Amino acid sequence: MSWAECRQGALRGPHFLQLLLTTRHANSSFKLLRMRDRSSFHYLRFEEQHCSMMKMLHVFLVLALLGLGTGEEGARLLASKSLLNRYAVEGRDLTLQYNVYNVGSSAALEVELSDDSFPPEDFGIVSGMLNVKWDRIAPASNVSHTVVLRPLKAGYFNFTSASVSYLAQEGGQVVVGYTSAPGQGGILAQREFDRRFSPHYLDWAAFGVMTLPSIGIPLLLWYSSKRKYDSPKAKKN
Q: What's in the keyword line of the UniProt record (predicted)?
């Protein structure tokens, strides 16, 4: 409100001056309200843009995940190789177990398990085969295979992994993988294993026979002496 307007209002009367001030205050309040409405409008537009950007981001992430899932379709095998014996002993049976799991979305075809890590001069096959095939392994299922070997020599041996080959999809390329490896372990000699873990029945029997004279002879001497002194003496007439 300018000085000229105040002077003109004072000349016309106090009522006109009050009306002029009220009008100016209303105009300023209206301008402030318009500014607030405009800022609120900009804020709403910003929120709408943010929501639309988040929706677009979610759609993009879903499409990316669908693309990854489509790219990973097919069979996927996980295989393990483990020793079931606590100790590997020369001349005694050693049991191996192979487990193959299909964690993929379709059946694995023409699955072949091959283990060439046991030389025939070091191990003999008691039962089972080191090369085995399956026509198919259904998704979310597993198969097991057991082989019994017999170590022919004592010493350290490195139990390495076996190979697994299969078709992830019908008409696809051959996929080659490997099982887990038990690692290096020792094969005990038969005599060493018996010395550590056998019940030693013969040893205890031999020990008893050897200690029998040292216990039995003093016992016999004591018994004969006791019998001699405990016998009653004949009375003289």
A: Membrane, Transmembrane, Transmembrane helix
